[in-house]
């Protein structure tokens, strides 16, 4: 574990923030990526204060150029990329009949294209060393569909299919592991990306956030997948609060 280098997207809050702290506490060097520079600086400083190794790069995952720059900076600063955690995501959900096409496109851009850009940015360096681990964050919504989460669910289904397809494609020749992690409800800032009053009311009514996991619970699962010997590939994990339907 010690000396490994991990890129974490969406490291400025929630699951990405907790994962960055946990991995750094276990000797992994972390490259933090997100859009909010003030938050990234805080996370980096906190990790360094606790004795960990971290750097950051302001990155919008919807830009393939910025993702390539993120990978290049990681290689320049730390010499290799062992792990990519494609974690950045948004959830501006609404009923499809409301035709919030801009929100559909934003979810597709961040949740699907962001993951693809991450894979494309790191794969050449991983293939060169014939070693690596790509961890993609899907959701329980990537295994089922309930309105008004249809578009969000579609993006998370795509992440699941992309991860499993990549695993099969790399299988014959490569020593690159893939992990799909599908959380249930986790208490983070994700709900802030919901902008539809009807949906916000529904979320309050159904009390779906009442029994949420902590972001540390998901970070622990990510660490578990990373900690396995290189011959063991943890491919698919669903982590729900025990009380979640
Ligand atoms: P948060 O809102 O706390 O974190 C989302 C992160 O994504 C932030 O760091 C944000 O940073 C980053 N982000 C958003 N858009 C972009 C972008 N265009 N480019 C780069 N970074 C971006 O939510 P979570 O921690 O909960 O979310 C992490 C992942 O977990 C997401 O993929 C989410 O779908 C998934 N998930 C969450 C669940 C939950 O209940 N919380 C359940 C199932 C899955 P910034 O704004 O600074 O760019």
From TrEMBL:
Q: Would you say which domain of life the source belongs to?
A: Bacteria
The protein's UniProt keywords, in alphabetical order, are: Oxidoreductase
- Which PROSITE patterns is this protein grouped with? ADH_SHORT
Gene3D superfamilies, sorted? NAD(P)-binding Rossmann-like Domain (3.40.50.720)
Q: Cross-referenced InterPro entries, in alphabetical order? A: NAD(P)-bd_dom_sf, Sc_DH/Rdtase_CS, SDR_fam
Going by the record, the broad EC class of this enzyme is oxidoreductase
MF annotations from Gene Ontology? oxidoreductase activity
EC numbers for this chain: 1.-.-.-
Query: Which PANTHER family does the annotation name?
Result: DEHYDROGENASE/REDUCTASE SDR FAMILY MEMBER 11 (PTHR43115), DEHYDROGENASE_REDUCTASE SDR FAMILY MEMBER 11 (PTHR43115:SF4)
Q: Of which family is this protein a member? A: Belongs to the short-chain dehydrogenases/reductases (SDR) family.
Q: What is this protein called?
A: SDR family oxidoreductase
> Where does this protein come from, organism-wise?
Siminovitchia sediminis
